[in-house]
Write a structure and sequence with these properties.
It is a single chain. The chain is of the alpha+beta class and about 375 residues long. It contains 8 helices and 19 strands. Among the domains are: about 10-55 and about 140-230, Probable tRNA modification gtpase trme, domain 1 (Gyrase A, domain 2); about 280-373, Elongation Factor Tu (Ef-tu), domain 3 (Beta Barrel), CATH 2.40.30.110. Helix content is about 20%, strand content about 30%. Strands 10-11-12-9-3-13 form a 6-stranded mixed beta sheet. A hairpin with a 2-residue loop joins strand 1 and strand 2. Helix 2 (about 35-45) crosses helix 7.
Length: about 375
């Protein structure tokens, strides 16, 4: 540990590969390697990129029907998950805000949950306090890697048989690197996998993948632009504890069985706010997450203030994520505007360095995803 920052099991390998390291969620993490952010982004879209995401929390939940227990904390159908399947979910608070977005997988007799690094301690405390009939076990002896891109299957197949896996399927695969906990998922909009591996075997496993011609190491910089092109939220930017699922345009993640009239309706924090909004829709003045395409070449980044008109008027919202999209070839942003201005084609302005620049509301994602269905 240096300067109070935690290190992942791949830290020495990052330095060997020439990574530029930055503080992120309490960890010393690679933001880019020698290729640079642009080339790393494009390589992931064209071949396969290897990401170290070991800073994220890995949790096992066991006990008497842990799936039904977890539904007391999330609005998703966890009890409806079939074995060896996983689902995107989120913790909510009493005001309907999203406390974290997570991945939940159902395995034989237990759940495997991955939480964001910045919310790791809070999420584990929440689960330990709220799941009265379950045991919450934090996994600290395993690394987590993501292998993403159209060549990810071919690369990983050389180590373990993953070709038959479908999107959001999970499994445990014996290998020369110990048991690999694998899900066919990721956060780039590409086909790919997330792999939990024993910490002591993680570097050997990463080296085996990086020795393949199609695989390059990818840092946090390209991970951010990849997920933004895919229209995926970054917790703390695009969603937080003041943002409800309807505002965040994440209603697709709440199954009918948990909504009004469903067999297991409600029973989660914030149901009094979320369920009526799901049934009735957001009001015209309620804010809504949207895709934004600036007309020029200058990106509109986080905290850029948005306006309805080129001159005058009060702000209508702000950008929560923004960058240049290497694959789409132009600047892209996400942000919040009133619902009545959220229709694609609506023209707005963003104030960049004291000047209002034109932009247009567009449909998300900026680039269609290529998950294996």
């Amino acid at each position: 540990m240096e300067d109070g920052l935690l290190q992942t099991p791949l830290h020495a390998l990052h330095l060997e590969l020439g990574a530029k390291m930055v503080p992120f969620a309490g960890h010393d993490m690679p933001v880019q390697y020698r290729l640079g952010v642009m080339k790393e982004h494009l390589h992931t879209r064209a071949a396969a990129g290897l990401f170290d995401v070991s800073h994220m929390g890995q949790v096992i939940i066991t006990g008497d029907n842990p799936a039904l227990e977890l539904e007391r904390l999330v609005p998703q159908s966890i009890a409806g998950l079939k074995e060896n399947r996983q689902r995107y979910a989120f913790f909510t608070n009493d005001s309907g805000g999203i406390e974290d977005d997570i991945m939940v997988g159902r395995r034989d007799g237990h759940l495997f949950v991955v939480v964001n690094a910045s919310r790791r301690a809070a999420d584990i405390a929440r689960m330990k306090a709220g799941l009265h009939k379950a045991d919450v076990i934090e996994i600290t002896d395993r690394a987590l890697l993501a292998l993403q891109g159209p060549a990810a299957e071919a690369a990983l197949e050389r180590i373990v048989p993953v070709a038959a896996m479908a999107f959001m399927e999970i499994g445990i695969f014996p290998s020369e690197f110990g048991d690999l906990w694998i899900s066919r998922s990721g956060y780039t909009g590409e086909d790919g996998f997330e792999i939990s591996v024993e910490a002591g075997r993680a570097e050997d496993f990463a080296r085996a993948l990086l020795a393949m011609e199609e695989v390059e190491p990818i840092g946090l910089g390209a991970r951010d632009s990849l997920r933004l092109e895919a229209g995926l939220c970054l917790y703390g930017n695009d969603i937080d504890d003041t943002t409800d699922p309807v505002q965040a345009d994440l209603t697709w993640a709440i199954q009918k069985i948990r909504r009004e009239g469903g067999e297991r309706s409600g029973g989660f924090p914030g149901e009094a706010v979320i369920l009526p909004k799901l049934a009735q829709g957001a009001g015209d003045e309620d804010r809504r997450r949207v895709g934004i395409r600036p007309e020029g070449r200058a990106p509109m980044r986080e905290h850029v203030v948005l306006f309805e008109r080129e001159t005058g008027g009060a702000p209508i919202g702000e950008v929560t994520s923004g960058a240049f999209g290497p694959t789409v070839g132009h600047p892209i942003s996400m942000g919040y505007v009133p619902a009545h201005l959220a229709a694609p084609g609506t023209k707005i302005w963003g104030e960049v360095r004291g000047k209002r620049l034109p932009a247009e509301i567009v449909t998300l994602p900026f680039r269609p995803s290529t998950y294996k269905r």
